Amino acid sequence: MDFYYGMAQIVGVHTLLGLSAYIVLLTGQVSLAQAGFFAIGAYAAGMLTVLAGWHLVPALGVGGLAGAVTACAVGFPALRVKGLMLVIATLAFGEGVRIFFFNFDYQIARGDITIGPLGGEGFRQIRFFPENGWTTAEVMFFIWVFVIIVMLVLWWFDRSRYGAVLRAVGEDEVAAQSVGINLTAVKVSSMTIGGAIAGLGGGLYAHYTTHIEHSSFNVLVATFAIAYPIVGGLSNVLGTLLAVIFVQVFLVEGLRFLGDWRNLLFGALIVLAMNLRPHGLLDAQALARVRRLFGKDRGA
Amino acid sequence: MLDFLQAVLDGMLFGATYALIGIGFTLVFGVMHKINMAYAAASIGGAYCGLLILQVMAGASPWLVFLCAFASGGLIGYLVYLACFHFIPLSSPLATLMSTVGMLLLIDEIIVHATEGRALGYPAVFDDVMLRAGEFSLRGDLLLVFGVSVLCMAVLLFLLYKTRLGLATRAVSQQPVAAQLCGIRVTRVNAVTFVITGLLGGIAGAMIGASVGALSPLLTVPLTVKGLIVTVIGGLGSIPGAIVAGLLVGAFENAFQVLRGVTERDLYVMLLLFAFLIFRPGGLFAPKGGGG
Which residues are paired to B136 by β-bridges? Predict the structure, then answer.
């Protein structure tokens, strides 16, 4: 049973990562910096619980805050450029963060061992859960509480005025600007919220794996972050969850019997999925069809 | 000080390969307004295919390997176009971004599979030649890299500005609809652009292999990042920009490798990029009407 709980933990953390990119994608911006915010949250929360002895919940809060502050700071210069330039700028930022942690040493002696991040070797001994005797199931529920809160908040955003503004900017910047929407404020705020979600997800990730290192936050992770919402479709937060389950459960675990060939199939399946469904697995049409199927079409 | 200048010089010569990769990104961007994230991986893939000739003809000359890499680069470029662009509507930029990222992962994995993840030695020419110019020395293999890259750029510029094909390509890049109305087959021009950038990529990959002395799948992601940085610093869509920025990034990177060590050098390349984004967001040679 622990195996399934472990998988649910992975799905939860990756959903947070995907959702952090989702809200930025709603404004039509593609950010490959999410792995960077994820890393900052992970290191910040990990250092607070391990080195400063904080409880996990405030540490996660600080991790999320650190992600948000960095995202806000990155957002201002990066959003001066648009579209594909932003992809490159954020990609470079994410790699920059990774290289920073590759060179980051902050060790303190605790008894006869030293603990803390150590450059290329990474940051071991993030043992909050085992030290406090949490079972795998409890950790899973703890993670999913955050996932559900974030999903509900984003769901609510989507139905609020703010969500409409985000999508308006994503659909047509010029039209949005002409009705008096402040583009910079909208983009930087969505980037900041995305950074907070990624930081929170990073904090949770650091604690359930107990060991993080720079390579856990490489370009592949940044790609995954945007791949989930794009593959899942941007019409609904559930699309991201669906894509995470498709990738992590079906592709990564379900195809394990294929061995090394699984990795080959992975890239090919992304290419195939985008050829067949360029607007994502769960696009607006599919969503409407599902609603009709369950007879719950509320005329939306 | 002398060592430092020597490092800058070496870096600039090696930067010619970054310039070639940057040109590939920028050309596809100029014509289709899309980024082909799989480009650097396809280039390395082309260089690997060059090694196949050694399987058929043991002891083939390095020049033959380069030629084979050149040709297979073009073929891979066409395949990438078919798989990632041809069938996806142009109106969904996210879909092509994602499909090329998928392609990047796929090419990477094919290489890992075919070589069992080991680095393969790459043949080099002139690697025993050392030219002396006063206090400085120039490595023969780096000079070759530089020379071949300059030759490729010259051929490309000739192709773009002196032939009908180049005229059509530039027409599509400026006004795809108007170009189509003039009877230019836009999909064909797009496909040809991919083949040309693929050929360039194959030669760039072979040059990288020759000057590093080995090829490894680990090269693809850093090369993608460097190529994209070169594209931005040079100004998206600008070929002269990509050339100058490639040399600049190469020199800058090697200078900081001497000053701060190999683990930190890329950090400073990123900082260079951010300096450009803040102070000159359109790049060195910004197209008229602002960047982006």
Answer: B133
